[in-house]
Write a structure and sequence with these properties.
It is a single chain. The protein has 295 residues and is mainly alpha-helical. The protein is 59% helix and 2% strand. The protein has helices spanning 19-42, 56-59, 64-73, 78-101, 121-145, 152-191, 215-224, 233-254, 268-283; strands at 210-212, 230-232. The protein has a two-stranded parallel sheet with strand order 1-2. Strand 1, helix 7 (215-224) and strand 2 form a beta-alpha-beta unit. Helix 4 runs antiparallel to helix 6 and helix 5 crosses helix 6. The protein is globular and about 90 Å long. The relative contact order is 0.08.
């Protein structure tokens, strides 16, 4: 076994409002803080080396910052939520930057969010590919960890696969954090009386369905569960894109219309028109150009 639990520190059925859960978060952060200090003091990673130069046992410590960000993100008490999200973002960025140095990740814009960077037809294929890559890595890790005899080569591949998997997860979570922070800031202002709460946007409730990879699977699963609709990945992303566009259009419609201009206020355009009209009257006598009103 690799000794890495991809869902750590959450436990199945854990009540996130319980004191036990809160204690687990604090204990986990304390452990990870000590690990972070240890990794830094031992200088396990360097900008002057490649991934092949890193020992197999050191590879798993690449995930310390990813786990630290993940645990911070599981803190759901509102009064401290923003602080923990900002901490999670910094840990995620450190992890992602380290993976870039070793060729496990590509440079990205760390400020991407749902408002400025919504899902569109242009980036839909990239989203689908990342979804497939994540599932492939999860299956690969599961298969390798089930082997009875795991030699160093396989163990090394497990650690590298975990790092690649967490690169995808971290990119998703950075996107989610950047999208959540403005909402938290708005809620802070509402609670402080600085602004009025926005009217709720009505959204359609998504009915249960079966998500499959291909038309062939759609035919198989659809026959097995006739009461549930079946979607391929492409159909799912098309539907999701349509839903997002509809929500954005609805939000725009709810925005107050711009205030009408003051009719008494003189603009540069109105002044220019008035001057032009005065100049024309100075150079053209009344009735000029009117054939039925000759002098």
């Amino acid at each position: 076994s690799s000794g890495i639990n991809a869902e750590w520190p959450l436990r199945p059925g854990e009540d996130r409002t319980s004191q036990n859960y809160k204690d687990l978060i604090l204990e986990s952060l304390e452990i990870l803080q000590k690990l972070s200090v240890l990794v830094s003091s031992l200088r396990l990673f360097s900008t002057n080396e490649s991934l092949d130069d890193v020992s197999t046992e050191s590879l798993k410590f690449m995930l310390v910052n990813a786990f630290s960000g993940y645990v911070h993100q599981q803190h759901f008490e509102f009064q401290d939520r923003k602080r923990h999200l900002l901490a999670a973002k910094e840990y995620y960025k450190d992890f992602h930057h380290l993976c870039q140095l070793y060729g496990l990740a590509k440079a990205i814009e760390y400020s991407m969010n749902r408002i400025d960077n919504p899902i569109t037809k242009n980036n839909r294929e990239e989203k689908i590919q990342k979804f497939k890559d994540k599932k492939d890595l999860e299956e690969k890790i599961k298969e390798m960890e089930k082997r009875e005899n795991v030699d160093e080569e396989v163990q090394r591949e497990i650690y590298v696969s975990y790092a690649k998997l967490w690169v995808i997860r971290v990119e998703e979570e950075l996107y989610n954090i950047n999208s959540e922070l403005p909402m938290l800031e708005h809620m802070d202002k509402v609670r402080g009386g600085e602004t009025n709460p926005s009217p709720p946007i009505k959204t359609k409730v998504m009915k249960p369905f079966i998500l499959v990879k291909s038309e062939q699977q759609k035919a198989v699963f659809g026959a097995g569960y006739p009461s549930l609709p079946t979607m391929t990945l492409d159909e799912f992303y098309d539907a999701e894109l349509k839903r997002i566009v509809e929500a954005q259009n609805q939000q725009k419609m709810q925005q107050p219309p711009p205030e009408p201009d003051d009719p008494d206020e003189e603009t540069a355009e109105s002044l220019a028109k008035a001057r032009a009209w005065d100049d024309w009257k100075d150079t053209h006598k009344r009735g000029w150009g009117n054939r039925h009103n000759r002098s």
